[in-house]
Structures are given as structure tokens and as C-alpha cells.
């Protein structure tokens, strides 16, 4: 028997493939949304990578025009910080026990920062100086000393 022409054999192969794919279609439809989302995410990631690569190349090209600061002003390093010496914890406790609360606000040491802020407008500059001196000699909390110092400066400007 003589073989069939190539075009007939190709047509038969295409028909069989179409039938096979049609049988697989219901199973593939269930996974189609996942496949589409996956492809979209992959495309998005490739796009982000390409944008990042372009930005890096741009930074390299522009670095010639704008040199990088050797040490940014906001950078702090351990050697720039003042050395903190450990003091006797018993001396601190004795000082705290012997300390009298400021007469202006007898419960000052128990106040939170927000509670103190709420009372600042009612105090005079002298009262604030007394609180600042008390804070510096006792707890020396930076946020408290900063707030008191700023309030005193504001009152002196007025």
C-alpha cells in the first residue's frame, strides 16, 4: 500500500491533536485563572527587575556629575558619641530617695510626657527653670529636658 500524501497525514494529525486538546480543556479551564495570574506576576517581576537595572545604570551614569558625600550629615557613628561612664547605681538610688519633688508640680516625677506637656502653658519661666533643674539632676530624660528647654526659650522670646 502506498503512503498517503503528506498533506492528508498532517490534516489527520491536526484533527487528532485538536480532539486531544478538546478533551483536556475542562481540566485546563479550572487552572486557567491561576495560570493567567502567575503569568501576570512573572511579567510584573521581570518589568520591576528591568526598571531597577535601568535605575542602577542611571545612578552610575549620574554619579559622575554629582559626587557622593563622604559622610552624610545625618550619619552618626559610635566614635562620635560621647563616652558613657557607668556610675554607682547605689548613689543614683540614694540621690533619688533624697530628692524632694519640685514645689511647682509635686507629682512631677510620676507625670508622663503628654501629661507634662498639657500643664506647660500654665507655668511661668521660673517654674519651668525649677522643673528643668530637677529633671537634669534626677532622671535626665532627654525628651523631658528638651521639651522644657524649648518651652523656656519660647517664653523668653515672647
From TrEMBL:
Residue ranges of the region described as Disordered: 69-91
Location of the DUF8129 domain: 109-156
Biased composition range(s): Acidic residues: 70-82
Name of the protein in question: DUF8129 domain-containing protein
Organism the protein comes from: Saccharothrix carnea
Amino acid at each position: 500500500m502506498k503512503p498517503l500524501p503528506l498533506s492528508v497525514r498532517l490534516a489527520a494529525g491536526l484533527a487528532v491533536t485538536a480532539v486531544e486538546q478538546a478533551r483536556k480543556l475542562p481540566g485546563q479551564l479550572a487552572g486557567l485563572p491561576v495560570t493567567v495570574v502567575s503569568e501576570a506576576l512573572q511579567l510584573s517581576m521581570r518589568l520591576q527587575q528591568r526598571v531597577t537595572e535601568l535605575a542602577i545604570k542611571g545612578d552610575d551614569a549620574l554619579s559622575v556629575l554629582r559626587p557622593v558625600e563622604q559622610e552624610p550629615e545625618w550619619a552618626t557613628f559610635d566614635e562620635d558619641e560621647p563616652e558613657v561612664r557607668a556610675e554607682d547605681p547605689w548613689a543614683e538610688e540614694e540621690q533619688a530617695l533624697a530628692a524632694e519633688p519640685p514645689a511647682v508640680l509635686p507629682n512631677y516625677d510620676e507625670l508622663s510626657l503628654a501629661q507634662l506637656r498639657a500643664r506647660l502653658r500654665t507655668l511661668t519661666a521660673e517654674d519651668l527653670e525649677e522643673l528643668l533643674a530637677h529633671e537634669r539632676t534626677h532622671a535626665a530624660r532627654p525628651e523631658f529636658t528638651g521639651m522644657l528647654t524649648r518651652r523656656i526659650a519660647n517664653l523668653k522670646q515672647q
